[in-house]
Design goal:
Elements (H helix, E strand, L loop, with lengths): L1 E6 L5 H12 L2 E3 L9 H6 L1 H26 L3 E4 L2 H14 L5 H15 L7 E6 L2 H11 L9 H16 L6 E5 L9 H18 L1
Parallel strand pairs: 1-3, 1-4, 2-3, 4-5
Helix pairs in contact: 3-4, 3-5, 4-5, 4-7
């Protein structure tokens, strides 16, 4: 079984992925952030490095999907290949930070990858307001994220909502995380787990 967690920067994807992996004894697949050779450069010079960064993420996510399929294990994935293709890359293109030529090249590659993959058995979308995202980003203190603007986060949030509204790759669970603290509050984590259990039992 393949469960995936989606959401904007700072919504709590990685944290929830770890907690759910531990609870359900699923194998976690995390987004390659620490070892990503383009992230620092991208946040310092977005226009120059946007295509390189998005291709790196696309390659990484596609490899994860193939690995998940081959393993035959129950897996939880931190962020999906769809978020790269329907949110981050189009946003960079719309902001003039990725050229038409690069975006068309990127989209063509994604369409090829998507044609040989299928959506997760359950997608968990973490919905968050901008103030909550900003608070969480500052709290974790990653240096390269200091330059992320509220305008950039807002654009991403709008694209996330549009994507989720039309999502049709399989079962979807939306969790509003503004008033949830699944790290320090066991009741909040329990509420999330109960909702996931309800979805999963419907899958079998």
């Amino acid at each position: 079984m393949h469960v995936a967690v989606a959401g904007n920067i700072g919504s709590g994807k990685t944290t929830l992925t770890g907690l759910l992996a531990k609870h359900y004894k699923w194998k976690p697949h995390y987004e390659e952030v620490e070892d990503n050779p383009y992230l620092d450069d991208f946040y310092n010079q977005m226009e120059r490095w946007s295509f390189n960064l998005q291709i790196y993420f696309l390659n990484s996510r596609f490899r994860q999907i193939l690995s998940i399929r081959e393993s035959g294990k129950n897996v939880i994935q931190d962020r999906t290949i769809y978020e790269d293709a329907f949110i981050f890359a189009p946003n960079l293109h719309a902001m003039g930070l990725m050229t038409n030529r690069d975006f068309e090249n990127y989209s063509s590659l994604f369409n090829l990858m998507e044609s040989v993959t299928k959506g997760p058995d359950l997608l968990i979308y973490l919905r968050s307001s901008i103030p909550n995202l900003v608070k969480q980003i500052h709290k974790r203190g990653r240096e390269y994220e200091n330059s992320i603007s509220i305008d950039y986060l807002s654009r991403l949030n709008e694209r996330y909502e549009a994507w989720i509204h039309h999502y049709d790759k399989g079962p979807l669970l939306i969790i509003d995380v503004d008033h949830l603290d699944f790290v320090d509050n066991q009741e909040d984590l329990g509420e999330v787990i109960n909702r996931i259990d309800a979805e999963l039992h419907g899958l079998f």
